[in-house]
Amino acid sequence: MLFPCQQPLWPLPIWKRKRRSAAGALMNSKSPRKPRKNELQQGIAALKAVVIIPARYGSTRLPGKPILEVARQVTGRYIVQHVYERAARAPSVSKVIVATDDRRIAEVVEGFGGEARMTSPEHRSGTDRIAEVARELDASIIVNVQGDEPQIEPEQVERVVQLLLEDEEPVMGTLAHPIEDEETWRDPNAVKVVLDEHGYALYFSRSPIPFVRDCENWLRDSPVQPLRHIGIYSFRRDFLLRYARMPASPLEKAEKLEQLRVLSAGYKIKVAITDKACMGIDTPEDLENWLASYSHPLR
Q1: 83 and 176: one domain?
Q2: Which of these, 80, 176, 95, lies nearest to 140 by C-alpha position?
């Protein structure tokens, strides 16, 4: 089921077109000479994204989750390695970095040829951790890919990058997936999102939203397709650094959802719909299900 908000086609009004991307500024320059090849390359390079994967060792339910040996034995790779290599295949991604506070994770990442950065153990969230790394980077877009999402698709990483390249309004981009069963809709661990007609997030919640009044079967009769949020984010780098300094909002504290800090402050988050739901690994049961379903270890 497709809705207008899933593929917004509305053009930006003229008064909103003042800012231009680095590549766009070069291509639309009023200079009489054509941009040189190296200038174009520099402009395009400035739009390349960097993926940062926050990875902690100290998980309560699955200690050492990013580098569990059982994952390597069954699938041929550590969990964080699956995420790293899939993210690196996105066309607009110029670099992938694992941000961690544990030397054991850094050593594993460097062992498979990846790049790791040590960060402070005092960070309250993964977003704070990636912001520490982003301060040292010269990149326009930073993508936060969770280190426990071994089934993330390169196309999904690319999509959240393109959300910010195609539209100047949002400061963040993310994904959502259609909900097709009532159990997921009512599950507080499944974060729901509702969108406006242009694909911007109106609200994220652990509660079933939108509530469908006067409806016997919400799945059959709802005029709105319920959506489950997928926890991958693209940030404009400057906003990410600002965001990390912003205090948590009351709504964020209530729902325990960081993205509500952004909406509460009046900023926009663009959401694209994906037909593939990623399996995050949060519990031993999640790990067991992923290993049981894994059939292409070199994919």
Answers
A1: no
A2: 95
The reply to whether the predicted model has a pTM over 0.70 is: yes
- Map residue 274 onto helix, strand or coil: coil
Q: Residue 5: inside a domain, yes or no? A: no
For the ranges 20-34, 101-115, 123-137, 157-171, which has the lowest average pLDDT?
Answer: 20-34
Residue 284 located in a structural domain: no
175 within some domain: yes
Distances (CA, A) of 230 to 10, 17, 113, 272: 24, 30, 28, 10
Provide the sign of the torsion angle of the four alpha carbons 11, 156, 263, 178, taken in this order: positive
Q: Are residues 187 and 253 in the same domain?
A: yes
With respect to residue 223, please indicate whether it lies within any of the assigned structural domains. Answer: yes
Q: Which residue has the higher pLDDT, 121 or 26?
A: 121
Residue whose entry in the numeric block shows the structure tokens 């919400």: 218
Q: Cα 139 to chain center, whole Å?
A: 16
Residue 220, domain extent: 159-230+246-277
- Number of domains, the chain: 2
**Mean pLDDT calculated for residue range 147-158:** 94
Q: Are residues 164 and 273 in the same domain?
A: yes
What is the distance between the alpha carbons of residues 151 and 186, in angstroms, rounded to a whole number? 24
Average pLDDT, the chain: 84
Tell me, yes or no, whether 268 and 189 share the same domain: yes
Residues, the chain: 299
How far, in Å, CA of 284 to CA of 180, rounded? 25
Taking CA atoms, 278 is separated from 71, 118, 205, 282, in Å, by 17, 27, 19, 12
